[in-house]
Amino acid sequence: MAVVAPLLALLYSVPGLCRWLARPYYPLSALLATAFLLVRKVPPLCQGLPSQREDGNPCDFDWREVEILMFLSAIVMMKNRRSITVEQHIGNIFMFSKVANAILFFRLDIRMGLLYLTLCIVFLMTCKPPLYMGPEYIKYFSDKTIDEELDRDKRVTWIVEFFANWSSECQSFAPIFADLSLKYNCSGLHFGKVDVGRYTDVSTRSGGGPLHRYKVSTSPLTKQLPTLILFQGGTETMRRPQIDKKGRAVSWTFSEENVIREFNLNELYQKAKKQSKPREEGPEEPPAGHPPGETKKDK
Fold first, then answer.
1. pLDDT tens digits, residue range 150-166?
2. Which residue of 37, 100, 182, 277 lies most exposed, with the fewest beta carbons within 10 A?
3. What SS3 class is residue 65?
4. CA 272, 187, 239: angle at the middle one, nearest 5?
């Protein structure tokens, strides 16, 4: 049984692994993450490389390279302790491996370091992580439709995610939020998303306008993406992450368990089903099979 369970888990994950490998982002990231290993270990690539080993073997790591790789392993293990999804684990491995590769290549030869850095920049500019395309019950808003929809029916409770496609945290949270929408969507509890990277007016308009109430930073260094806001009666009643008095986001883990607990989704779901009138156009609860969302691809 101890052998059968891992084998079954491996077979179950094969379709997902194949879908990953079919996307250029993952194999190219893996190639960049293992570039130094290939150059140092694979003949004839390693022939003629400088080495600080006592035996002068150019196809094996010297003590400093081993030290850097061990440090990389420790950093990845520490960072992955807070990771929620497989994508986050893999993303951390790729990111820190590329940093370690750059250091190792620059240490080996400045020309190789510059070449590797150039390849990483080109990859970053031309190859984006694949977006979540699975089933969901989520309505996508623009800067012009969000206020109208929130104020349309004050009996409806909304949980809205403010996200940006360039944010790795938003991409990791996308399947979690989609799964929550499939489990908890009903006629009185809806899920929505706003791409603040595309509709910057949602987060940057100032003054007395209605959009000013969202106040979600889109800075490249921001810790406010993603932001989840609960709207009841058209008014914000809760958001995560919270913002402290200095305007900084308080660290919060976007796991399914945390969202359910902090936003009281079970209680909201039961209350929404009782207080809302049923939809005329469809069943109250998502049917089996997890059908797709309302306007998923209209991003």
1. 888 888 899 999 998 88
2. 277
3. helix
4. 60
